[in-house]
Amino acid sequence: MGALARNLRAIQKRVNPPGTPHAARRKILAVVKANAYGHGAVPVARALARAGTDWFGVTCSAEGMELRRGGIRDRILLLTGFWPGEEKHLIQHRLTPAVTRCEQLRMLERAAARARRGPVAFHLKIDSGMNRLGIAPSDVPCVARTLADCPHLKLEGIFTHFASSEVFTDEKTDQQQQVFMRALEHLRSLGVEAPLIHLANSGGIATRPATWANMVRPGLILYGYHQSYDPLDRNAVAAAALPLQPVLSLRTRVISLRDVPVGQGVGYNGRWVASRPSRVAVIAAGYADGLPRALTNRGRLIIRGQFVPMVGTVSMDLTAADVTEIPEVRIGDVATIYGDDGEASLPISEVARLVGTVTSDLCCAIGQRVPRFYLP
């Protein structure tokens, strides 16, 4: 968990450089949705709470309640809102919902009035151009009128979500920021304000200081990675000079060694055929554990500090590798899927680029049956 805490400190230092007055300090909302990007929501949240994060962000009430059961007492924002009928549970578990439609205000107001616990806080999401969730700028007057009739609610935050904040050359982010700022001004003109404003996700934190407002929402960068796999984006991220350390390593063991004659196939449909007498190691991991099936005949592993090619189809539970060049390999040896072994390094971001996806996709794909071990 040391890498996780160091990444949080790097983010805190970036958005609150030395000399920042306490009153001007930007808050950190640590995004731990999707089981903390596959890392384990409760252990990760506990570590981040100890390291000094201010808020947590999750997708839904089920994720929020999991954190509460795990002992997390900090504020938790439900980033995608709530379903009708969940209002009572939100209030009971002190979960802060995002409101993404005007009619949700009435639902929340009725539940807050019945609960008699004082004003219920919520965050208002503005759709600035992502075109998924959020109040359209044209619905701002509806929000103001409805909120005026909701004495049991408290607007605590207003936020939006960028579609492509990692891309320096994309004008879309600038356009979204302008739309959002105009919506804020419209709300203020109608007497609606909030103490917390947040726009910047991981890409915004890394590359766009103008989007930081007074709270930021780091997601994948907490875990040591930038989202983009495009070379242009990597240059942009490098310019941001945000030091990160990968949190996750994924390892398994060799459970079988096979001598495969020339012309014999390996695995389903014999998609790899030995062109020489070959030594093939079978490891205890497959696509049910998070290895993309797209790595069939193109991925690699690290065994005994050396890279070895994956051979044959990545199956649900098992994957094979050609270890002919490493005769000392034995059953029980560690096979590194993501991470470091000696001088060899295989970051999950590199594998994501190989299969044409983003790093968070592979992080989230790590199966539930994979045991997680948390080191200091």
Would you write up a description of this structure?
The protein is α/β, with parallel strands linked by helices. It has two domains: 2-240, Alanine racemase (TIM Barrel); 250-365, Beta Barrel (Lyase, Ornithine Decarboxylase, Chain A, domain 1). The model has no long low-confidence stretch (mean pLDDT 93). It is built from twelve helices and 17 strands. The longest helix has 19 residues, at 171-189. The protein has helices at residues 2-15, 33-37, 41-51, 61-69, 87-92, 104-115, 140-148, 171-189, 202-207, 231-240, 348-355, 359-365, and strands spanning 27-31, 55-58, 75-78, 96-99, 120-125, 153-159, 196-198, 215-216, 250-260, 265-266, 272-273, 278-283, 300-303, 306-311, 319-322, 334-341, 344-346. Helix 1 (2-15) packs across helix 3 and helix 11 (348-355) crosses helix 12. The protein has an eight-stranded parallel β-sheet. The protein starts with a helix and ends in an 11-residue tail after the last helix.
Quick overview:
The protein has twelve helices and 17 strands.
